[in-house]
Amino acid sequence: MSDPKLRAAIDEIQAQLAHAENLPPDQRRFLEELVGDLQRLHNEPSTPGSDSLRDRLTDSVRRLEASHPTLSTTLGNVVDTLAFFGL
């Protein structure tokens, strides 16, 4: 799925992760893994498991809403993009 919105969202998540202070190491690793999964989805449209990816992203949005609202909003936008494409 080579969508410019998804690419922009991936870049934004990476930038926000680079500047996210006080993000617990386990959450940071989890989000970095999600970014890797999003990059694979972007580069290989036939990548299976997009439902699982969307569920994990949605879970991350809920966990980050209070502590990192900007990152949470960006992840929410990615979830919306995946849903728009039926992924």
Describe this structure in words.
This protein is mainly alpha-helical and 87 residues long. Helices cover 76% and strands 0% of the residues. Helix 2 runs antiparallel to helix 3 and helix 3 runs antiparallel to helix 4. The longest helix is centred in the middle third of the chain and has 19 residues, at 25-43. The radius of gyration is 12 Å and the shape is globular. The mean pLDDT is 79.
Descriptors for this entry?
single chain, 87 residues, mainly alpha, 4 helices, 0% strand, globular
Largest sheet features:
none
Tally of DSSP β-strands: 0
Order of helices and strands: HHHH
Shape: globular
Helix coverage percent = over 70%
Radius of gyration: 12 Å
Summarize the helices and strands and which ones pair or pack:
Blueprint: H1 4-19, H2 25-43, H3 50-64, H4 69-84
Summarize the structure.
With 87 residues, the chain is an all-alpha fold. The chain has 4 helices and no strands. Helix 1 runs antiparallel to helix 2, helix 2 (25-43) packs antiparallel against helix 3 (50-64) and helix 3 runs antiparallel to helix 4.
